[in-house]
């Protein structure tokens, strides 16, 4: 399958990943639809994930193999990090899972934004307009122009989107019940995923990338 855009996500594995796929109705890892428990078409197409390097088109002359190799090298130079406990929270008008500890995942995101920048094609005018549609601060505008995305570095906030806009209190209660098993203990980030946007507009995992050379496979399956 050809990919129109690439991104680097944290795509949780194990039971947490299954719960997220069941909730949104799209299994980004297997590229398969599920019935879904919430009506959130925008969140669904991206799958259950936290954005580390937002979707981008490859620069002309840069191929998928180069992008994959670069992403692997970045991941190899990083180490697994603790995310602490997850909690359900509102970000604006939508719901998300937020990690308690954000410093480590922020550093992971920073590395992928910085080191994969040379592979990114400039934004089109239409892409810039979409990024600005919700309104940006002066700082976010600077980041958009420099890095192609307004929510990087000091504006980065790690989150796993669980709804569309206008989430109700009743929906929040449903989210908390569905993910209750995952809110009490520590979660670790041990791998990230290079993902691609297919012709159908849905994102799929291209390759999982362990953080560091000695990331334990058990940790990747259970807590990443």
SSE inventory with pairings:
Elements: E1 5-10, H1 14-24, E2 26-27, E3 32-33, H2 41-46, E4 50-56, H3 64-76, E5 81-84, E6 86-91, E7 94-99, H4 103-115, H5 125-132, H6 138-147, E8 160-161, H7 169-178, E9 187-189, E10 191-197, E11 203-210, H8 217-223
Antiparallel strand pairs: 1-4, 1-10, 2-3, 5-9, 6-7, 7-8, 10-11
Q: Give the tally of structural domains.
A: 1
Class from helix and strand fractions: alpha+beta
Classified in CATH, the superfamily is Cyclic phosphodiesterase
Widest beta sheet: strand line-up: 4-1-10-11
CATH fold naming? Cyclic Phosphodiesterase, Chain: A
Helix count from the secondary structure assignment = 8
Give the % helix.
25-40%
End-to-end separation in angstroms reads 26 Å
Query: Would you state the CATH class?
Result: Alpha Beta
Number of strands: 11
Global morphology? globular
Can you offer a commentary on this structure?
The chain is an alpha+beta fold and 224 residues long. It has a single domain, classed as Cyclic Phosphodiesterase, Chain: A, CATH 3.90.1140.10. 35% of the residues lie in helices and 24% in strands. It contains 8 helices and 11 strands. The strands form 4 sheets. The protein has a 4-stranded antiparallel β-sheet. The protein has a 3-stranded antiparallel β-sheet with strand order 6-7-8, with helices on one face. α3 packs antiparallel against α4. The longest helix is centred in the N-terminal third of the chain and has 13 residues. The chain is globular and about 45 Å long. 36% of the residues are buried. The C terminus is likely disordered. It comes from Histidinibacterium lentulum. Pfam families: DUF1045 (PF06299). This is DUF1045 domain-containing protein.
């Amino acid at each position: 399958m050809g990919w129109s855009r690439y991104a680097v996500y944290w795509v949780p594995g194990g039971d947490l990943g299954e719960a997220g796929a069941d909730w949104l109705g799209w299994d980004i890892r297997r590229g398969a639809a599920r019935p879904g428990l919430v009506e959130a078409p925008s969140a669904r197409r991206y799958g259950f994930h936290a954005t580390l390097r937002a979707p981008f088109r490859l620069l002309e002359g840069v191929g998928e193999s180069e992008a994959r190799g670069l992403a692997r090298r970045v991941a190899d130079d990083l180490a697994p990090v603790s995310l602490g406990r997850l909690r359900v929270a509102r970000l604006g008008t939508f719901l998300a899972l937020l990690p308690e500890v954000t410093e480590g995942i922020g550093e992971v995101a920073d590395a992928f934004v910085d080191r994969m920048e040379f592979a990114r094609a400039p934004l089109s005018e239409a892409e810039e307009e979409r990024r600005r549609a919700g309104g940006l601060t002066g700082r976010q505008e600077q980041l958009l122009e420099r890095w192609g995305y307004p929510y990087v570095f000091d504006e980065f906030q790690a989150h796993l989107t669980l709804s569309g806009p206008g989430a109700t209190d009743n929906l929040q209660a449903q989210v908390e019940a569905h993910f209750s098993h995952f809110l009490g203990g520590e979660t670790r980030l041990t791998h990230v995923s290079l993902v691609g946007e297919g012709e159908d507009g849905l994102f799929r995992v291209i390759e999982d990338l362990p953080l560091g050379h000695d990331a334990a496979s058990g940790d990747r399956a259970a807590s990443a």
